[in-house]
Amino acid sequence: MNQISQRRFKDSWLYSFWKFSRPHTIIGTSLSVLGLYLIAISPLTTHYSPFPLIGAWIACLCGNVYIVGLNQLEDVAIDKINKPHLPIASGEFSMQTGKWIVGITGTLALFLAGIQGPFLFGVVAISLAIGTAYSLPPIRLKQFPFWAALCIFSVRGAIVNLGLFLHFSWVLQKSHIIPSKVWVLTLFILVFAFAIAIFKDIPDIEGDLLYNIKTFTIKLGKAAVFNLALWVLTLCYTGMILVGLFKLAEVNSIFLVLTQFIALIWMWWRSQKVSLQEKSDIARFYQFIWKLFFVEYLIFPIACLFSNQ
User: Fold this and answer.
1) pTM (2 decimals)?
2) CA 289, 164, 14, 85 torsion: positive or negative?
3) pLDDT (average), residues 174-178
């Protein structure tokens, strides 16, 4: 793509929509759907259809856009300080456009999930309900540190992992049994998502202070939350290493231990380069944490696929 084409794309409605959808969450949702599908098919020796994967992916993407879009509709003033590049805060999208996108994607998410089965409908419906309570007054749980963090790690951790696996397992095998490997991944993501939930507010402290959003960063300070997030992530990777060493799940233990150890060392190495006085450093490390989250949804399913080797 040449410079003129790039400029045209960045000035286009599609690029604004891409920013509105919060790409890092779209990638995370996509990989979680793919990862749970791969885990579900890992014990199968017969032919399996990709259509359940595609259908669940589209429904979950619609739900994702609804949740992040609603948050932007309710946080325009705060985003003008913390995230001025977002389409509504920058004026690229009007409030009316944002409302249409949120309404359409929310409706599509529920419809598409509903026609595919009860487990997927449950995942989408509960996620949308929690996302609505997170952003929308009068409940607006994002005002309260504990409840805000609980919203994020309950959806990303328990609801998505257990619900999507049950959906794929039921569609492919008519089974509703959750094996130990899924519980292991769920616990890892649950704790990992807590680290993401508390870390995400560190670079947003200015706007949150101004609008009285009482985050853990405001209550405890940047350094305390940064270090807490690092040790929570360390706990995640240490737990996975122990799962591999003691063969607590049906995975390729050598592959799992090596990859988790590399991720742990890489995380601590990157953390030493972060200056808490530089908002750009904090934002880059936050995106790095998301990349670690993405990678886990590839690493763990691969370990499951290699479990018989």
Assistant:
1) 0.89
2) negative
3) 90
Identify the residue whose tokens are 């009007």: 94
Distance CA 63, CA 112 (A): 10
Q: What's the count of helices (H) and strands (E) in the chain, helices before strands? A: 16, 0
Nearest residue to 226 (alpha-carbon basis) of 187, 152, 188, 277: 277
CB atoms within 10 A of CB 117: 18
Whether the Cβ atoms of residue 306 and residue 252 lie closer than 8 Å to each other: yes
Q: Show the DSSP H helices in 115-179 as ranges.
A: 118-135, 145-153, 160-173
* Cα(107)–Cα(62) distance, integer angstroms: 8
Tell the residue number behind the tokens 């939930």, with chain if given: 197
| Cα–Cα distance measured from residue 296 to residue 207, given in angstroms and rounded to the nearest whole number | 31
Structure tokens at 266: 């890489």
Question: DSSP letters of 12-61?
Answer: SHHHHHHHHT-HHHHHHHHHHHHHHHHHHHTT--S---SHHHHHHHHHHH
For residue 274, give the nearest of 204, 222, 218 by alpha carbon. 222
Which structure tokens are listed for 61? 């993407």
**Average pLDDT, integer, range 253-257:** 96
Which amino acid type is present at position 244? G
- pLDDT for residue 217: 65
Q: Does pLDDT of 246 surpass 60?
A: yes
Distances in Å between the Cα of 147 and the Cα atoms of 102, 124, 142, 155, 285 are 23, 20, 7, 12, 24
Dump pLDDT digits (tens) for 60-88.
999 999 999 999 999 998 888 888 999 99
pLDDT tier, 202 (very low <50, low <70, confident <90, very high otherwise): confident
